[in-house]
């Protein structure tokens, strides 16, 4: 008689992974969560809003996971998964309220799955949202043994009158860049082609460890800024770099002028250029050291930068807005 385990799916290991995850997940629960892990669906109550608009986003970690496999380190990429989603919905002024994750593998190892979800819970804590559900799929023959994929889905909420859609952007507005922690979760197919020895030293650390630095989550400092300032547009610098992402904040025909000499390029990108990356294409592939961009009124520039620094963020003026096509120009 053939059992499910004989086909490659270990139900008992799945039960074990859920038990290992439960205590971590509980740490993310915030007011509004109505049920616990294990229900058929997650439930969240919207209580304090007058005219709420739900804002959603979904993403994964991409081939950065290959670095985690080779380094046998799984507790950070879950942070990346949350970050990629919550930073996107943040661009419209939304406060993340809950998150769901999807984990797939060839052969489930409970401890590894728990490490991945541990990262997800840490990301949710950093973003101030609850992990209210998810799915773990064991698919032998589809994924190779030892390989995992992880993706997520975030939901946030914003009062309709407070949605940030770029409609208030004007010529002369200032662009403020907030520093990234490295490549975040983008461009890793190119990175893996260039970096073949993960144990090689890079500024005192193994370069594999540096490449697993989690994506920075910008939610809490930005929500704090929104309490005191008008932010006219925001861009999360992900795949496509500056050229694709900054124009996404525009509702009308404007050009983002980026002052290249103002940029403090993260050392890892300089290293990639030394390894052979095409410097001319770096700004449409990587964040180059700027993970999030704000468009603000000129008169608010200094106060916003000051407050961001007080909140622990490295921020500075990187450019300005002028009339033109929806594009980015580096000068």
N- to C-terminal distance = 71 Å
Strand content: 15-25%
| Rg calc | 21 Å
- What structural class do you assign from the helix and strand content? alpha+beta
Q: Residue share in helices?
A: 25-40%
- Number of helical regions: 10
SSE arrangement, N to C: HEHHEHEEEHEEHHEHEHEHEE
Biggest sheet details: 6 strands, mixed
Low-confidence stretches: none
- Record field, number of beta strands: 12
* Lateral arrangement of strands in the main beta sheet: 8-10-5-11-9-12
Q: Describe it for me?
A:
It catalyses: 2-formamido-N(1)-(5-O-phospho-beta-D-ribosyl)acetamidine + ATP = 5-amino-1-(5-phospho-beta-D-ribosyl)imidazole + ADP + phosphate + H(+). Keywords: ATP-binding, Cytoplasm, Ligase, Nucleotide-binding, Purine biosynthesis. Residues 170-329 form the PurM-like C-terminal domain. A 6-stranded mixed sheet has the order 8-10-5-11-9-12. It has helices spanning 11-26, 64-71, 77-90, 110-127, 188-194, 207-211, 219-226, 241-245, 267-274, 301-310, and strands spanning 52-60, 95-105, 130-138, 148-159, 174-179, 201-202, 205-206, 231-236, 254-258, 290-296, 315-323, 327-330. The mean pLDDT is 93. Helix 4 (110-127) links the parallel strand 2 and strand 3. Helix 3 (77-90) packs parallel to helix 4. The chain starts with 10 loop residues before the first helix and ends with a strand. It is 30% helix and 25% strand. It contains 10 helices and 12 strands. It is globular. It is an alpha+beta fold and 331 residues long.
